[in-house]
Amino acid sequence: MSAHRIWRFARLATTVGALLIGACDSPHGAPVRVIIPRGATFRAAADSMAAKGVIQSPLAFRIYARARGRDRQIQAGTYLLRPGTRWIDLVRAMNGGVGIINRITIPEGFTIAQITPLLVRALHTSADSVDVAVHDSALRARLADPAETLEGYLFPDTYVFAPGTTARQAVTEMVKRFEREWKPEYDTQAAALGHSRHEIVTMASIVETEARLPEERPVIAAVYYNRLKDGMPLQADPTVQYALGRHTERVLYRDLTIDSPYNTYLHPGLPPGPIASPGGASLRAALAPAKVPFLYFVAAPDGHHEFRATMAEHEQAKRAVRAQRGR
Fold this sequence. Notes:
By secondary structure, the protein is an alpha+beta fold. The chain has three domains: about 5-100, Endolytic murein transglycosylase (Dna Ligase, domain 1, 2-Layer Sandwich), CATH 3.30.1490.480; about 100-180, no CATH class; about 185-290, no CATH class. The protein has helices at about 5-25, 40-50, 60-65, 85-95, 110-125, 125-135, 135-140, 165-180, 185-195, 195-210, 215-230, 235-245, 280-285, 310-325; strands spanning about 30-35, 75-80, 100-105, 160, 295-300, 305-310. α1 packs across α3. The protein starts with a helix and ends with a helix.
């Protein structure tokens, strides 16, 4: 027998052995993450599983799937699979999308109203389930959150949720992520400013929704702290937008009359709670505001802000900005 025929026979024997083992194997070990890109072939999917140790022989697995007529339709996604899973179960998972984990990214500055549809789609749940979760009294008590919801405490990040994750489990994980972000020394910094953690998160949420340039966050925080210190109303447009329940490019004079505790044009001090989910940079800005005398700022067309200490200077800056917009 030639060396080539011996090699082919050995490969066939190995493949048959793998077929027999794979058909009756049992799961073991921790689940691993396997990514099957959109448009991937069954060969590519099998190679990905082999690379992660889910299967031993991608060739034998392909032969098995082809023999059962199940190698044509596979669903893209990120799967959680355990090594040694029976091949019939792996094929069924790939055909039906069973075991796909759900990835969701919460951008900085998103509100619960914006986060809810993302969770609904990722978890295949209802908006009502998310609403119940974000009103959870135990989680709010754990955070010493006096507001009615967990607004501001669903930390912006990318999350991966396993199949079957409930809305409450997802919301709890997002709250835990906030708790990890809030370092022990932050309590000392908050106390030095004379504010509770809830008030710092509230300030950070306003900074998050105002800032366009990262370096301006501490300065914007300083402006609002300076207003609080001087007994001025915050007059923060994002709080009015939150009260309105919608984002507007410009807050109009008629919007400033809305009867809401979140309307910082009518009600002094900080609003009752956060108006969005602040990221780590905005939290740090709220804890360490810049040492500047500014009380006013106006946004320029390119996104940066012009900061001023007096109303006269502010009016002059506003005229300059309007002139820029008119060009």
